[in-house]
Amino acid sequence: MRRVVSLFLPRWPTDRLRRKNPSLPTRDRPLVTATMEKQRRVIASVDGAAARAGLAPGMTVTHAQSLIPDLTVVDAAPEEDAAALRKVAIWCMRYSPLVVPDPPDGIFIDVAGAAHLFQGEEALIQDLLSRIQAQDIAAKAALADTPGCAWAMARFGNSLVVSPGRASEAMASLPVASLRLHAKTIEALHEVGIERVAHIASKPRAGLQLRFGGDVLLRFDQALGSIIEPLSSLLPEEVPSKLLRFVDPLADPDDLKRVIAKLCAMLCPELEHRGVGARRLDLVFLRVDNIAQAVRVALARPYREPKHLARLLEERLVLVDPGFGIEQATLTASWIEALSERQTIGRHLATDGSDVDVGQLVDTLGVRLGSKAVFRLAPVESDLPERSVKRLPALHPPQGQDWPKTLPRPARLFSPPERVVAIAALPDHPPRLFVWQNRQHRITRADGPERIHGEWWRSDAETELVRDYYRVETADGARYWLCRDGPAGTGGQWWLHGLGEA
Predict the structure, then answer these.
(1) For the packed helices 12-20 and 78-91, what is the interaxial angle rounded to 10 degrees?
(2) What does the radius of gyration of the chain's CA atoms come to, in whole angstroms?
(3) Which of 27, 115, 193, 386 is in the most buried spot, having the most CB atoms within 10 Å?
(4) Residues β-bridged to residue 326
(5) pTM value?
């Protein structure tokens, strides 16, 4: 199913100018761009401060300066705005291979088949907005089944994500301006009482066509998905890419697998010639109905082995709906890195210190389980168990650190620890039994306490933190890691922090 993000940059011309020229006034002082319209100089765009002061595009500069005498006016440069918007669109290809600028202030991103790399659609939008806004660029975004619905929600709606199949409900209460209609058409609709999208749905289509032309119904149908609105993918010239066109449309999965193998065989020699490997691959199938179906795979390290790349892409074929057939396929290495040849050896033949390549295994697991689910653990210098480990990418090189051999830790750590009831014979002695999950566990062997203090340099709250840890073994041979969150004299509570022993 198609899922499209509309990124809206409401102050793009002024935001771009401020990024280009830091000497311009700060954001609390109004800034506008102006252009010549007939014999008058009128405002083309305004920043946030100017908008709050009552200025708007179309107002004459003379009128604006009468309201704000110290107004900063810069000549509009629509060509430069469009060129910079294209650069932002190329940057947005980190989220999907299907990206299209929507001048003068928007970008469309078809994220179907790519949202899983960001842990879902809402997380993808939040990541997109946080990165854009961190660059001092005002931005809004919405995601829906169609470009028209996403465009409308980004500018007039309140929802970040419109659930699949709910475009008509989401747009019903929006103004007719959300259909991307000409200003004169919107004014004509208002004159006859049609102010909301739901009003258009309630009117006879023949009458709307006759009175307002075909643009109203076209935009209405595109927004609700009755008519497909094609998006042509933006592709930088310097990015390695290969294209195949077919005489007859393809729909059989085996045929698509052969297409993938051929594209990889075509792409890898170019990567080798450049001395690079692919870190991310984008495969785009164009259907006969002009709908693009895209899949994306990320790699743990640069690769240019055709068989391995083809296997990863084949894993994502389940996300492709060929419809009535696919007539074109494009494979793009949208993220490349330098790759030098190296000799590797399998673990079953490796000697101590030799290089064992598990990159292909990491890539396969990442495609099947998600890249966030494949990682390695690294030690951190901290006495507190929950802070003594961190996640790193699966192929991150060793950092030369290790946990102290003299301080054994459990094989499994609970986060957070689980509350237990324990009974000890004497203060500061190991417990004789504890109750966990409504079961009583009698302790036969114990070691401790190991006293751990809080890290006072982090916060004042940890100055008084004290924990006593005990390694215990129960009558059935199971081993546990118990702790008391304070000395016995202060009445500390007991917790189960880990199982087993490393």
Answers:
(1) 90
(2) 31
(3) 115
(4) 250, 287
(5) 0.65
pLDDT along the chain (502 residues), means of 10: 91 93 89 91 93 92 91 93 93 88 92 79 93 93 94 92 92 94 92 93 90 91 90 77 92 94 94 90 89 86 92 90 92 86 50 62 80 81 84 79 77 88 82 91 90 85 86 92 79 86 58
Compute CA distances 485 → 28, 77, 176, 416, 429, whole Å. Answer: 51, 64, 62, 13, 14
Q: Directed axis angle between helix 253-274 and helix 306-315, to 10°?
A: 140
Q: How far apart are CA 307 and CA 320, in angstroms?
A: 20
Classify residue 51 as exposed, middle or buried by CB count within 10 Å of its CB (0-12, 13-18, 19+): middle
* Cis ω before 175 (30° cut-off from 0): no
Q: How far apart are CA 315 and CA 317, in angstroms?
A: 6
Give how far Cα 477 sits from Cα of 266, 419, 445, 480, Å.
59, 21, 10, 10
Handedness of CA 287, 289, 292, 293 (dihedral sign): negative
The residues near 99 (Cβ < 8 Å, ≥ 6 apart) are 89, 90, 92, 93, 107, 108, 109, 110, 233, 234
